[in-house]
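Quick illustration for those who missed Monday's session on complexes.
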Amino acid sequence: MYDLWIGSVIAALAVGALVWGLIFWCVVRYRKRGDQLPVQTRYNMPMEFLYTIAPILVVCVLFYYTAVVQTDVDRVKNDPNMVTVEVVAFKWNWQFNYRDGAGEDANTVASTLGSSDVIPVLVLPTGRRIRFEETSKDVIHSFWVPELLFKRDVFPGNVRNVFEVESINQEGPYVGRCAELCGTYHSMMNFELRVVSPDEFDRFLQAKRDGATTQEALTSIGEEPLATTTKPFDTKRTVSNFNPSGGE
Ligand SMILES: [Cu+2]
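Prediction with copper (II) ion bound:
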């Protein structure tokens, strides 16, 4: 996706430079030189051919690479080694359920639930395939970790929106957001993706299965217990924002 993005920007700049160049060249070359009106109808066959064919070619090339990348990004495999997470979105927070298999019939073995006071931290390992299965409790949300260059809508009802990540290469915290306007506190629907080594992940999950909270389990593997990329927002839910001077 990154390469496609960079390639598209270069292509756009190249077309832009050509067009700007032609504009400036025309401004200088065909500037007003006298009072005689130039010929008002004229055609240039090679030029008309060029500006019909060139955009079609540009669109075809962009379409081809987009289709290739999109097919690759959307591919799901049934890899028995992958980590499956059920992402449950609701107004206005997230629940992350670690599953023992793929699909609706698998079981949740551990769970992390966000609250107004604690940002939910989704812990995942490096080097393993990750399968996300998304579902919403109310309206459409969108699961977005900007560093993954990827967002995917989370639908209510019986829809499980599934996507997989080949592997995450770098450990560390990554901020996550809801990217679909879902109501009053949409902007506060943040979470954190915390990527750790596979070994630490196994110990984290074991601690969770043994009944530890997410914060305790994070501490037990030597990680910061709370989110480091974002913090809970002050929602001011008890304050009347419409009439600050008046009483409730
Ligand atoms: Cu949302």
